[in-house]
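Input record (one chain):
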Amino acid sequence: MKLSKKHVDLLNEIVDKSLDMILMETTAYQEFFKSMLKKYGVKSPMQLKGEQRKKFFNELKTGWAKQKSKK
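The corresponding structure, as predicted from the sequence alone:
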């Protein structure tokens, strides 16, 4: 089945908007992740040990979920 130029243009627009949304979401998550690292005073979560690492990832998960729900 051949698509008309109008349909191709519409699909391209949808794809472009979807990619933009994905990139914005990725960037926002990276910024949030970096802020969590800064809060814990580390450059990598691997620097955290045991319960501190577990707490970091739990807080990361719940914090990101809260931030996403605000949108």
